[in-house]
Amino acid sequence: MSTTHEDTEEQNLAYNVFARACVSRGTLEHVTGRWGGLTLGALHEGSMRFNELRRRVDGVSEKMLSQTLHALERDGLVHREAQPTNPPRVDYELTPLGREVAERLMTLIQFVEGRMDDVLAARERYDARRGAR
To answer: How far is CA 31 from the centre of its chain?
Structure first.
C-alpha cells in the first residue's frame, strides 16, 4: 500500500478536523457558522460594543450574539473589554489570532459576494431543471 504526500501530511498534524473526536471541529464550527462568521467579519472592521455588533450583524438575536461572542472569546478569537464606567461599557475586538482568521474569512466573503451572479444563475438553471420534471 503506497502512502501519498497528503496521507503523510495528515498523519503529522496534531489535529485533524475530519476526525469525529477532534477538538478542532468545534472551533471550525464557531468560525464558519452563520453568526460566528458574520461576527468575525463585523469585528474585522474594528472594535464594537454589543449593540453596535447586533445592528451590524442584521438578524442575529441578542441571545445568539451573546452565545457566539462567548464561544469566540473562549477560542481566543475575540477579546472582551469591560470598562469600569457607569453604566458599564463592554467592547469586543479581535485578538491577533482572531484577526488572522477574520482576514481569511473576509477573503472568502468577498469572493462569494463577487461571484453571486454566477451562483444566482446556477440556482436558476437548477430550479428550471427541477421544475421541468
So the answer is: 3
pTM of the model: 0.83
Beta bridge partners of 49: 91
What letter does residue 2 receive in the DSSP assignment?
-
Other CB atoms within 10 Å distance of the CB of residue 79 = 16
Residue 55 φ/ψ, nearest 5 degrees: -70, -40
- DSSP alpha helix (H) spans, 3-115: 5-12, 24-32, 34-43, 50-56, 62-74, 96-114
- The residue ranges of every structural domain in the chain are 24-131
In this structure, whether the domain defined by 24-131 belongs to CATH 3.40.720.10 is answered with no
pLDDT in tens, 78-98: 999 998 888 888 999 999 999
Residue pair 17/28 in contact (Cβ under 8 Å)? The answer is yes
Q: In a 3-state reduction of DSSP, which class is residue 13? A: coil
